[in-house]
Amino acid sequence: MRERSNRGDFPVVSLGVISFLYLLLIVLILIFSRQVLQDLAAGATLTRLVFIPIGTILPLFLLISFLVQLFRLLKEARSAKPGSSFKVRLTMFFLFITLFASIPQGVLTITFITSALQAWFNTEMEGALDSGLSIALRYNNETVRQLESLSTSRVLAEMLEEGTQGDAEAIKLWEDLKSIYPGVSGLQLFDDTGYSFGFFGDPRTMLREELPQGPEGAVNRFRVDGQTFLRASRRFPMERNGEPVSGKILLSVMLPDGFEAGGRALTDAIEVFGQYRNYRSYFSIALILLYSLFAIPLLLIALLVAFQTGKEIVKPIVHLEEAMRRVMDGDYSIRIISGGSDELSILVSSFNEMLSELELSREKLLQTEKVTAWQEIAQRMAHEIKNPLTPIKLSAERILKARSGDREHLERVVDKSVASIVQEVENLTSMLQEFSEFARLPAPRPKDISLKTVIQEVVAIYSPSFPVTTCDFSSIDPEQNISVDPSQIKRVFSNLLKNAYEAVSEEENGHILIQSDLVRKGNSHYCRVKIEDNGYGIPEELRDKVFQPYVTSKKNGTGLGLPIVERIVADHRGRIWFETETGIGTTFYIDLPAENPA
Amino acid sequence: MVETPEKLLVKNAYEGQIAQVRFDFRVYQRSRGLVGLFGDKILQEMSIEKTGGWDPFTGRFFIRETDGETWTTARAEEYTGKLLSISNVSLEGVADIEDAYLLARAGLKQVRLRIPFNLLDPLLPETRMVTPWVRWDFDFGAIQQ
Predict the structure, then answer these.
(1) How far is Cα A164 from Cα A156, in angstroms, rounded to an integer?
(2) What is the rounded CA–CA span in Å between residue B91 and residue B25?
(3) What's the CA gap between B107 and B133, in Å, rounded?
(4) How close does chain A come to B54, measured CA to CA in Å?
(5) Would you say A299 and A292 are in contact if contact means Cβ atoms under 8 Å apart?
(6) What is the distance between the alpha carbons of residues A538 and A582, in angstroms, rounded to a whole number?
(7) What DSSP letter does each residue of A49-76 carry, written as one string?
(8) Distance of alpha carbon A253 from alpha carbon A184, whole angstroms
(9) Tens digits of residue pLDDT in A462-501
(10) To probe the interface with B, which of A34, A142, A221, A275 has the most B CB atoms within 10 Å?
(11) B62 CA: distance to closest CA in chain A (Å)
(12) Does the beta carbon of B142 lie under 8 angstroms from any beta carbon of chain A?
């Protein structure tokens, strides 16, 4: 038996490949999660070309496959297809297990993340961050303000008047400056051309490029070797070739180590905190969506695996059920193909072996039955042929004896004897004709016909000959069709109804009732026809052999009617049996296919 | 009350948030004949990204460009004007190509969401906007004549 491939089946290999790819994608995302999140933030090509297509197309594809499989499963379950209830149970089990595992995990994960975020991003934390930033800003602004004040102060102007006269005065200027403002980190002196003629303090604060332009006292920030400094300038009077010109000094102040980095960390933290505060209501939704992006395809994969597993498990069972049904219908040639080596495959192999042995035994039995039947038929035929031969022989002998008598007596004997011989020969011919028909019944050519029409036609033949007998077949559904060979089945009903009419012909209230019903055997539907009469019943000694040839209770019966009926019914893969009771009547039941098997 | 993007940018900057602007440029050459059915040929693609915000330590707005260059200003109008515009963009090697044209668009994220809040991007369409592609035909042939 070969499995028909159904459209819409999800091949195991495809399912395996999709599952593998999806799991691989998840593993890669987990390994490179940081990079993935950054790419998502930047809206990079990776997001557009990989995540969005995979994140939408793959789940969509899986969802469509799942819906197709679900639709087919429900259809199978509705039509009570063998194995469908098992597949439904298996799918429900997988669904339950998957949901049982994923929902609590998802709820716990999302709850944990949101709780953790709530714990981190609380009001105290926000206050602490704001206070930290406020302190840092206050320090920063104070330092800037002090540097601004110093650079624009009269004291510095007076100190510069003396401190720019020579090297010794410059050193004194630096010392005095440090004494009034210990935080100063560098002092650099420039002439009117921008040439630096003096520097004191931290070498990192020394300006090596062009002198920056800008108003006096304006504070700038600059970074050297990871350290942040503040810088302000101040003009001072000096002379060049007796002419008054303006020189310039640069004052630098170093901010504490890590001040800049700490400040940036604070502003970054405030930025993140602000985003959480503004969008926290969306965050749980985003987490649920993200979780669903991973969980739902996995759930669908699990369900598709359930469908596939169910199909794989049920397949041999369904094949076994179908094979059993075919065997019940008499087809012993069926075999189930099994490629596996699991328990079900072993069962299938055993079933095949059993069928082989059964077929062999059945063939032997049929052969034996055939020989026995023919022996019996030959004996009965010899007996039946012998019966008319005796009167023929006697008639012939009577004619011979009459030859010695007068002519009138001879003519009388010849007429009577010849009539007897002709009658017996006709009986013999009729019997041989029926036997010939029994032996050469053609294979049925079934087509759908109306049961009621056939019954109606047969009743119309016999009812005029039995006017006292009533025949009721009104309950038969006119729409009820049977798939049979019309001429053969007409012969079946003809034989049975003739027997019924004859059985009730001597009764005062002779009545025949014909009814039909629809029955199911395996996956096939049969029409069960019931023919009931209230005649004298079948004699007890004949009940076991009414379907054997040449068995009859009638005076002029050939004994081939019921064997032909049984043969035709059997050829239609049907069944015939009867119930009878002496003095009550006989009921024949016939099961005929209600639908065309093709 | 509906606030203009400029006001929102300034407000967000004062709240410590970073805005992100991205300008995309694509130069195409029109395809003719059957090849045209598959679309025009892309010759050059360029993106310029700027991020901007407020630095409380300097008391100035800052704008940082793709190449790392940082520009600062104390004036809000200058900040939004500079952030939302672009100048001196050169696309080299397309002047002598006939039938070339430019598509350009600009995208603005009023708040550049940090990890892991960037997951919210699809849920917050109001925080970002993208203009449609705008086409400009160079028509270099006409210029040379």
Answers:
(1) 12
(2) 9
(3) 10
(4) 10
(5) no
(6) 7
(7) IIIHHHHHHHHHHHHHHHHHHHHHHHHH
(8) 5
(9) 888 888 889 999 999 888 889 999 888 988 999 899 889 8
(10) A275
(11) 14
(12) no
Identify which of A38, A133, A279 has the shortest CB distance to residue B117. Answer: A279
pLDDT in tens, A176-202: 888 988 889 999 988 888 888 889 999
Tokens of B67: 């190449």
Buried/exposed A222-238: b ≥16 CB within 10 Å, e otherwise = eeeeebbbbbbbbebeb
Decide: helix, strand or coil at residue B47.
strand
pLDDT digits (tens, 9 = 90+) for A96-130: 888 888 888 888 888 888 888 778 778 888 889 88
> By the CB < 8 Å criterion, does B115 face chain A?
yes
Q: How confident is the model at residue A13 (pLDDT cuts 50, 70, 90)?
A: low
Residue A341 contacts by C-beta under 8 Å, 6 or more apart in sequence? none
Residue with tokens 């603005």: B108
Q: Tokens representing A46?
A: 């990776």
Interface test with A, best of B119, B123, B127, B129 (most A CBs within 10 A): B119
B70 — contact with chain A (CB < 8 Å)?
no
Distance CA B52, CA B78 (A): 12
CA atoms within 13 Å, Cβ hemisphere of B100:
19
DSSP A440: T
Chain A contact present for B116, CB below 8 A: yes
Chain-centroid distance, C-alpha A491: 50
Summarize pLDDT for B57-89 with one digit per residue, the tens.
Answer: 888 999 998 888 889 999 999 999 999 998 888
Confirm if A255 and A229 have CB atoms less than 8 A apart: yes
The answer to whether A336 touches A316, Cβ cutoff 8 Å, is: yes
